[in-house]
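Late entry, written up from scratch paper. The run itself happened at the end of the previous shift, but nothing got recorded in the book at the time, so transcribing now.
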Amino acid sequence: MQQQQEQQQQRSAAPGALAAFARFVLCGGGVGVASSFAVAASASWMPWALANALITVVSTLLATELHARFTFGAGGRATWRQHGQSAGSAAAAYGVTCVAMFVLQRLVEAPGAVLEQAVYLSASALAGVARFAVLRLVVFARNRAVVAAAAGPVRAADVGALIPAGATGFCRAA
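Output as recorded:
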């Protein structure tokens, strides 16, 4: 009974999608800006690629903790699973920006700085929105196990009840 009350309190403490997105932008953007300065400072005494890799790892860990505690109201520290999934979504976002810049270089012989920034920022924004959705719906989703367990197994009779009469014309195999 107490566990159900705690789960209800956590659900009611979770921010709505708009508030969570604003927090996501604030936390992720803040960490991103700080990271850019940290990479520049670190690159003065180590190779840039190494500085970028180290700062990326640290900033991803920090952002995941902020997202767990503040953005999505998970109520505590991020788990190792959440850190791994968050890192995977960050890597996918990195891939999106790399592909966008690669395509730009193939389509435009000598793109100017403004066009490069527009493409990069557009790809980053698109990847950021997708990353927000993944973090909210998968990584920091509330009570996935509880909801799945409560739903129970799906039976063929249950699925059959969902198909409207005469729907067999849409699918010859039905």
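Helices lie at 2-13, 17-42, 48-71, 80-107, 113-139, 144-151, 156-162.
(Scratch paper discarded after transcription.)
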